[in-house]
Design a protein that fits this description.
about 375 residues; about 15% strand; globular; binds pyridoxal-5'-phosphate
Length: about 375
């Protein structure tokens, strides 16, 4: 048995003809940056997220970084961020010149715990950057309520959650602005790097438009010191093809997740994901917990099953943030998660049968091991 974590080629092959056609159209257009494909994708993705504006950018990190810049958040400012996230969420804050202020997650949902946000707020706090981790929306009403009371901006890191819903509303529309990544492994992935900002704030959208293109709307008129971070025409063309499949692919992920949960719930020591009633996750990752995670991972590997860890080193313990001198024990919930989480295979092109094989291996292991 050989079960890979994610088969990216399979999703390309399913839509091969449409991708080929998009590529042919792209070549013949004679226009390769900031053109019609990007405009069309931006309109389609804005509509999908139920927001007024979408601005394509170079990647997910840039999307978050440019949002912070556009909000004039920088040196001397603090931004509240989950302690347990992919380091890119923190890097966006650091690159804007601001300081990430980590807070611990809720122990059941793994998303930022609103109760912990409030105690972390200081006179320097400017924004809350919430992450919809593993594809499950954070508790946005509680977050927005706190933000309103303290006059803070709310930014969503939606890099893992394309299409997820919170109380029926799509992520990307739940704060002042949201950053998406189209890195190939994401639920909506390009065939290369890509990202986007979504927002209902027209002024902010205008500023992101400037920032992604050297600070200029009109060639050679540079209003501000901008960056070069655009979503390529070719990637936009591919993303249009894939956006049309996103709901179908997410629905398949959901079926697999439900199947896993059903099969794995009663296994001792193994903790399956918890889904609050208001959340409609898109299962970017299916993350279980086990006190002897490394041994379990090794056992799966021997059985031919790939698994991954998201994430083995929390940002506060990474060398990149050594200057803050957060020692072990600074964020115990996050640190324990990093020791115990394990992501099992889930993707639009894995079958129920394969998931059943993984579940059976886990069932047998925990009876004998
Ligand atoms: C992937 C990811 C990012 C960064 O996206 P890139 O396109 O790789 O820059 C940011 N935040 C989270 C939570 C991610 O999973």
């Amino acid at each position: 048995m050989k079960i890979s974590f994610l088969d990216l080629k399979a999703s390309c092959l399913e839509i091969r003809q449409e991708l080929d056609e998009a590529y042919r159209k792209f070549i013949e257009s004679g226009w390769y940056i900031l053109g019609q494909e990007l405009e069309a994708f931006e309109a389609e993705f804005a509509s999908y997220c139920n927001v007024q504006h979408c601005i394509g950018v170079g990647n997910g990190l840039d999307a978050l970084h440019l949002i912070l810049r556009a909000m004039n958040i920088g040196l001397g400012d603090e931004v509240i961020v989950p302690a347990n996230t992919y380091i890119a969420t923190w890097l966006a804050i650091s690159h804007a010149g601001a300081t990430p202020v980590p807070v611990e997650p809720n122990e059941k949902t793994y998303n930022i715990e609103p109760k912990n946000i409030e105690v972390a707020i200081t006179s320097k706090t400017k924004a809350i950057l919430a992450v919809h981790l593993y594809g499950q929306p954070a508790d946005m009403d509680s977050i927005n309520e706190i933000a309103a009371r303290y006059e803070l901006k709310v930014i969503e890191d939606a890099a893992q959650a394309h299409g997820a819903r919170y109380k029926g509303r799509r992520v990307g529309s739940l704060g002042d602005a949201a950053g998406f990544s189209f890195y190939p492994t994401k639920n909506l992935g390009a065939l290369g790097d890509g990202g986007a900002v979504t927002t209902n704030d027209g002024e902010l959208a205008d500023k992101i438009n400037l920032l992604r293109n050297y600070g200029s709307h009109v060639k050679y008129l540079n209003e501000i010191k901008g960056f070069n971070s655009r979503l390529d025409e070719l990637q936009a063309a591919f993303l249009r093809v894939k956006l049309a499949k996103l709901d179908k692919w997410n629905a398949h992920r959901e079926e697999l997740a439900k199947y896993y949960i059903d099969k794995l719930t009663d296994i001792t020591e193994l903790m399956v994901p918890f889904v609050p009633t208001w959340a409609e996750p898109v299962w970017h990752l299916f993350v279980v917990r086990h006190p002897k995670r490394d041994i379990l991972k090794q056992h799966l590997k021997i059985c031919g099953i790939d698994s991954l860890i998201h994430y083995p080193i929390p940002p506060h313990l990474s060398d990149a943030y050594a200057e803050n001198q957060w020692g072990i024990g600074s964020f115990p919930i996050t640190e324990q998660m990093s020791q115990e989480v394990l992501s099992l295979p889930i993707s639009p092109h894995i079958t129920h049968k394969t998931i059943n094989n993984v579940a059976e291996v886990l069932q047998v292991y925990t009876k004998t091991g």
